[in-house]
Amino acid sequence: MITLKTLDRQYVNGSVRKSHGREIQVVTSAITGEQIAEGVLGDATDANEAVEAAKRALPAWSATTLDQRRAYLQKLADSFDAHREDMIAGLVEEFGTTTATAGYIVSQSRDWFVFAQKLLTEETFTERIGRATVRKVPVGVAVLITPWNGAGWFIAMKASVALAAGCTVVVKPSERGFWQAQAVLDAFADAGLPDGVVNVVFGKGDPVGNVLTTHPDVAKVSITGSTATGKIIAHNGVDTMKRVTLELGGKSPTVILDDADVSRAVPFAVQAGLFNNGQACIAGTRILVPASRAEEFRQALAEAVGALKVGDPRDPDTVVGPVLDRDQYDRVQHYIRTGIEQGGEVLAGGLGHPDGLEGGNYVRPTLLTATNDRTIAQEEIFGPVIAVITYADEDEAVAIANDSPYGLHAYVATGDTGRGVALARRLQAGRVMVNEIVDAPDAPFGGFKQSGLGREFDRFGLAAYLETQAVFS
Ligand code: NAD
């Protein structure tokens, strides 16, 4: 009999301790579909104790000098390095992302703590405006709620700037990313920060999330998650007027213009759509092709997606690994079925497992034709399924791209960058990438419309953890 690992660590007030809660969360391998561990979820007691610890630690932490904070952020970067292998293993085995992508995600997670150090200048916190001295002060205890798709990256991104701002934090990772987030918990615990500055509690939205997001001693909540959860959190916070940052869902368009070179536009669109096996908020899951060249682009897209190697994420040749768990597999199948029932033509992939990959949560990367009113073009799927939509002219492309409750990201492929930039200005999306997919941790990130509220990254992210005070003298 195999003994299952028990993941029951909580990190509260400087101690790694067992969860007070008793509810068990089954942790499965994305690769085999089998149970690999048992997660023990926290409860209201864990949540309340974490907030108390963060509240106690706040006065001393917010009074640290910028040099001290920089040194602690560097300790966190070093500790993330030390836990790198466990973080990668969690991402690959539990989440199903490829080893190469996991390595990249973990390196970036560590880098957030280095970037945050650069924000710590005296000018960031004090400036003179007329007769006023304008001070930026930490908002208070910050609750950071994160999703399962690359848990450590989101935790590090939020925690780095919250701590730099002088806030103390309570992190609540997703209950669907236990292994990934327990590795992050260990990195925090080993970094040597003062007790209570960082706390990590595991638990579901109810009760742990609700306790944290209604708690009177919590000043700020930053969540990355679904739009439905973001709305609950905004409601939860209003009575105590919590500051909220909401990074929510997306249904991002990739507009291929009629002057685009097929050999560049197609890999660009496929990469945008299938990063992290399509389990990415920024995925370009609606590809808009011009009617004048629709057949050519559809065929090239179908060939490109059909040729992708789907398989074990530990195999270096794999491009698309499995999705997170059986629920996610079923969700993806549901949407493929719906797309077909609503009249979509399968250009690549389709229902069921890829041949030879019947174990585990492997799905076939799928391209389906659709019009923008179809379910698969309106709802977020969070798997490797892309709707291919034809437009008549540029105005219609803009109208289709913007006809979505979401507005997180957009992509434009064109032979003329100037034309692409002009189009980008007409799109309702927090970020638009023209012809290239770039890492830009220093530019703002966040959504229009129901993709969220507020911006993250760099000084935009830092500002979300600061209050502004003008003192006249
Ligand atoms: P989710 O909304 O189900 O859960 C996100 C987090 O919220 C989890 O930690 C969950 O436990 C917590 N939560 C749920 N109910 C809560 C409540 N009532 N109070 C407090 N916390 C609660 O999302 P998910 O399935 O983990 O992640 C996928 C979603 O996240 C997708 O919609 C995706 O687009 C979105 N996402 C957005 C971004 C972005 O930057 N905009 C990035 C990644 C993922």
Automatic annotation (TrEMBL):
Q: Name one GO molecular function term.
A: aldehyde dehydrogenase (NAD+) activity
User: Does the keyword field hold Cell division?
Assistant: no
Q: Which reaction does it catalyse?
A: an aldehyde + NAD(+) + H2O = a carboxylate + NADH + 2 H(+)
Listed EC numbers: 1.2.1.3
Enumerate the active-site residues: 247
Q: Give the matching Pfam families.
A: Aldedh (PF00171)
Residues in domain Aldehyde dehydrogenase? Answer: 19-471
Per the record's keyword annotation, is RNA-binding included, yes or no? no
Q: Which UniProt keywords apply?
A: Oxidoreductase
Gene3D superfamilies of this UniProt entry? Answer: Aldehyde Dehydrogenase, Chain A, domain 1, Aldehyde Dehydrogenase, Chain A, domain 2
Instruction: Output the InterPro entries linked to this UniProt entry.
Output: Ald_DH/histidinol_DH, Ald_DH_C, Ald_DH_CS_CYS, Ald_DH_CS_GLU, Ald_DH_N, Aldehyde_DH_dom
PROSITE patterns associated with the record: ALDEHYDE_DEHYDR_CYS, ALDEHYDE_DEHYDR_GLU
**Which family does the entry's similarity section mention?**
Belongs to the aldehyde dehydrogenase family.
Can you name this protein?
aldehyde dehydrogenase (NAD(+))
Name the species this protein comes from: Actinacidiphila yanglinensis
